[in-house]
Structures are given as structure tokens and as C-alpha cells.
User: What shape does this take?
Amino acid sequence: MRLSRLVVSLGLLVALGLATFVGVGSARTNATTLTIATVNNGDMIVMESLTKDFTKKYGINVKYVTLPENTLRQKVTSDVATGGGQFDIATVGTYDVPIWAKNKWLVNLQPMFSPSASKAYDLNDVIPKVRLGLSYQNNLYALPFYGESSMMYYNKALFAAAGLKMPLHPTWDQVAAFAAKLNDPSKNQYGICLRALPGWGEFGAPLTTVINTFGGEWFNNSWQPQLTSPADVKAVTFYVNLLRKSGEPGATSSGFTECETAMAQGKAAMWVDATVAAGALSDPKQSKVAKDIGFAYAPTEVTPLGSHWLWSWSLGIEASSKNQAAAFKFITWATSKDYIKLVAAKNGWASVPPGTRISTYKNPAYKKAAGAFEGIVLNSMLTADPTHSTLHKVPYVGVQFVGIPEFQNIGTLVTQDLAGAVAGSTSVSAALAQAQSQVTRIMKQAGYLK
Amino acid sequence: MTVRPETLAPSAVGLRPVGRFGFLRTQRAASIGLILPALAYLALMTQAPFVLTLWYSFRQWVLTSPDIPHKWVGLSNYTYELTQDPIFRQAIYNTLELTAAIVGGSLLLGLAFALLLNRSFPLRGVARSLMIAPFFVMPTVNAVVQKNLFLNPIFGLLNWIMTSVGFARIDWLAVHPKLSIIEMAVWQWAPFMMLILLAGLQGIPDDVREAARIDGAGPFTEFRRITIPLLGPYFQLAVLLGMIYILQLFAEIFVATQGGPGTATTTIPYYIYQTISQANDVGSSSAQGVLAIIFSSIIAALLLRLLLRTFRSGVTA
Assistant: This one.
């Protein structure tokens, strides 16, 4: 009895001791460890697998926290807003960077680029529009990891079978006509796949480009919401009717991934979405229609302004980070020309992170691997201007979003209302009326409207 | 002349210490003093999140808009949620509707399974284990599998079966979102109800049944007059436990419908999550959280009283 009690208490003591010393031991490693919060997109996963090269070169360890986009944004926002210091580097988008820079949540990278550092990194090689999107008051706050615009994907085989030809610069009216002819639900084939999953970054992105190109806007120059203006109503009604008539079923659950799957499986004849899908759709290992996929510019209607978006996932350093110099080394490594060459050596030129450097698009090996679409992608990115993306003058920047902190909430609420219209449970006018009143209330509470 | 006997214990009057702080020198004070640190720690650990939520609910704080002043606003968050926010009131209604449907549905299904499993048949143990299995599937996994493999309008199993027999395709999650959520949750919670009711059924003594049969009761009468009333306490337990958990249903809604389309499946937990993660509004979401606690307590109290009354009056001798 006494011996077993002794054994038990000794065992507990050993366990407690181990726990204490393990805790102390792990806090005492000499190498710096950076913590990076990133989205779980393909290119980021490749970056994670190549990080051992970085650690070998600089001796800095990197710990990855990979999360879906909405969760990532929420976690990193609460971390920076409360000064938590949990992450050193965060993956941020062109929406977040100017807002976070204004709130002083990101480190200003401009002073870290001495003339020699800027030359070694070749800062001028970064695509100017992308650089502009990641700056605030002419200072750069994040380095672009990959950039994208939006374009039209279509199934050449289905088009040829129906005797139709897709022009290089289609209009939305032409697209609606094609979709009606190619829609065949009995064969489980649908004219067009468009996102309608609620979310400012999901449904909101293509919807905003349609609103822009139909001549509408989110807010007029006095910040009054324009959701019930004639141009906006026309644009939204067009999008909803197109989906209801010739769109994929389950549209309200279809985001980027679902539509990419439908397109790759040959279930949809057309898809207007991010240019990053071009590589995956052309890869025979990932796509059933790799031989038949065709590319065109994003459709326009009244104006080409704002018809295709501009987005870049970038790496920024949190202001509360204690390892800013090491973090700077990492972000310059992951966005450098050498990194792009590393990915090309490992996975081929068609899967390098696109849309960041002009040199990528001048590289003959890249042109050979991605020739079918890289011209359209580069031109789309060069012509997407976040400061001029609407027919009328507006007080905000952003092509497929409005660059104010409240837009995350506004965009998601409005897309939720409109998803109800796509599903058929409300009419477009009722959904827009509700959206308009919600947005007006939010703008009043935030102080934009009196 | 009677002699008043001395009580066995000496009079306590003389033992109490005198003076203003006399109490502090007693044995009782010493005991309380020794327990107090542990009690304070316990109070802090269990109440700190609630107290902080309560504190934040009286303030205005939007994480992504540091321009909006971070100040005390009293009850204005509460009045906004209860009187002006259209989504919160819709969320209350949706929560009630979904909870009632899921608890009711899984209770009925659980009762049916429990009745079937109550008689002995070969491989009964295997059947029981298989029936319990859905309860152990993680809710997120359940929702993802059902959304993508069963309910998907293009690739889903259910639509494939329907189109094979000639029906039209239905986009379940868009056209019948509440029904889809109810189906996912009932599939998962029916085993839970079944376990509780099975325990109750096996507690009904055989001699009561025999007596009823001798008196000429058929199976339905036996069910109505003996089984149901004797299962009374088990129904109460099942409904109460089920309701506590199902009021908090989140995973299915988050994964499958994201509260939509529109606000068709936005429940209170999901709306609180949206307010804090989308609008980054700490004040409003804390107020919603406190209101949710008040609301669930009211529902639980009402339900308990209703059940007690029903089954107390319903038990026959």
C-alpha cells in the first residue's frame, strides 16, 4: 500500500518535472522562428514546401499557420487590432493593405528598401498597378506573392458542337445568348458557371465587376449607396437572371472552387473568374477539358472600366512583430525572382506564382508553358485600375471591392440578400431594397453619411 | 421542585470571542479563510469570460474601425439588437424553429428505433452499435459529406437517385435550406435520443406489461397508457439535454449554408459569429451573446415546467 503510493507520487513528480523542463527548453532555442499566417491556396502550399531552402540559406525557422480566407482574415484582424503579436508575417490582400497601413497595423516597408536592397530585389520589376494597390500614401506596405485579374474561360468543344464562336472581347449580352443555347440540364450541362456563394470576396467580386461594366457603382461621390439606382438594378437583375436561366444549379453554394470543379469536369460551357485558374484548367492531371479550354477577356457591357478585377495576395509584416528584420528577409525571399525560378525548377513554369513581376512575362520559358493565356492575364492586370474602375466618379478605390473597412460587412450582407434572390426565395427588387437600407444604416453608423 | 438538567454540551455563549472582530477569530472564519483562495480562483476561471462579455456589451468597439470611438454606450447595443436589427429577430425565430424541428424529429425517430431495439433478436448488439454510430461522426464532417456527396445538385447521390427514377433535380441547400439542416442534425441526434429512451424502455417492469395484457390491452393501448407515461422522466431528460445542445447548433449551418440563402438559416450562434468575424463589432456581438444566454434560460425554464406538468398529470397508476 505504501510502496504503490510512493510510486504514484514519484511518477507524478517526474511527469511534472518533465513538463516544466520541456516548456523551458523549447523557449530557449537560439534560432529565430517566424510565424506566418497564410491562406490555403495552391501557391502558398508550394511556398510552404520550399521553405526549407530559405531556412538553409538564412538559418531562420518559419512556422506556418494555414487557414481558409475568412478565418485567416478574422484571426489576423483580431491579432493586429489587439496588438497580440501572434504572427510575424500575414498574408494580406489588396483590400486589407491600405486599410491596415492607415491603422498602423503593418510595417512600412519603404524605409527597409535601401537603394542597394531595392536594386538586389529589383523593386521596379514588380508590376506597377499591383505595387500601387499595396501602397498607402506612396509607401509600400506589402510585397505581392501572386496577382490575378479575371477572365472568361470557355469549353471550345461545346462551342464548336453548337456552331458558336467566342470573340476575344465578348459582351455580356453575347455571353447570355451563348449560355441560353448551350444550357442543357437534361445532359447535366450548364451554359455558364458564376459565383453566387455569399461573401464579399466570393459572390461580391464578379458581381461588382458586372455592376461596374454596366455603368453602376456601390456608392456615389457623396457616399450614398447606389444599390437601387437604374444601372445597378439592371446589372444585378442581369446576373441573377443569367444564373437562374442558364446557370449551374447550387449556385448559392458555388464559390471559386466549386465552379472550377464544374468547369474542369466539363459540366459548364463558360466561366468568368480569376486568372489563377488558367494553369489548373490547362493541366491534364487536374482537368478533363485541358485540351478544349479556351480563353478570352472578361465580358464588358456599357464600359470596359472595372470589367475585370485586380487582386494580389501579398506578404506583410505585422507592426507588433518582434522579428521584423528576419521577417523582411523572408518576404523578400518569397517574392524574389530566385523564388520564381525555384518553383519553375520544381513544378514547371506554368505553375509559378503569376501576376507579380514583369520579368516573369518576358521569360521565354514561361511564355512557352503558359502561352495560351499569359497574354490575356498580363493585359488584364495592366489595364485593371483600382482608382478608375467605374463609369462615374466615386470616392473609393478598388475594382471588385470598396476599399473601406466596413465593406467586409456590407459586401457579405448584400451578397447574402442577393443569394436569396438567386435561390428564388425573394425577388431581385426586394433583395436590393433590403440591401440598400442595411448599407445606409451601416454607412450612417460609421460616419460616412450624416 | 424540578432540577433543570444540564445539557450535554456546555452553553456556547461563553465560547464566542468578544470584540468587534470576534468573528474573525472563530473556527468558522478560519475554515472560510482557507477555502477562499480556491473559491476565488474558481469564480475567476468560470465567470471571467462571461463578465468580460458583459463588460464589452456595454461598450462600442469595432476592431477594424479605430476611428469609431471606443466608449461606454450603456444599453444602446441591447436596444438596437432587440428593436432595430431585422436579422437578430429573424435569427431568434429561426433558432426556435430549427431547434423545435430537430429535437422533435430526432425524438420521434429515436423513439421508433428504441421501440424496435427493445425486443431481442439475433445480432441485436451489432444493430445497436450501428445505430449509435451517427452520433460519433463529427458535425463538421457530417455536414461536409452531406453537402458535397449527398445534397450537391450536380454531383450528389440524392439527385442522381431522383433523376434515375424520373424526378427533376432539386438544389436542396438553396431551395430547402432549413429542411436540409434539419435532416443533417436529425440524422446525427436520433441515436442520442434513442439511447436515452432505450434505457427508459428497459426500465419498464415486465409485470406491468403482463398485467395490462391480462386486462385486455392491445399493443396500441399498452403503448399509450403504459409506455409513454412511464417514459415521462426520460422524455424530459432527452428533450432538455437535446435542446441545450441543439440550440447551439453551428457546424452544419457554417459548412453547408453559411446562414443563407438570405437569412433563411441564420441562427443566433451563427449570427453572433458573423457579427464578430465579419463586422468585427465586439460591442454588438457581446450584447447578442448575453441576450442569447437570457433567451436560452427562459426557453429551458418554460420547457421544464411544461414537461413536468405534462408527465406528472399523465402518469396513471
Observations:
- Residues 98 and 182 of chain B are 7 Å apart (CA to CA).
- Residues 78-314 of chain B form a domain with the MetI-like fold fold (CATH 1.10.3720.10).
- The radius of gyration of chain B is 28 Å.
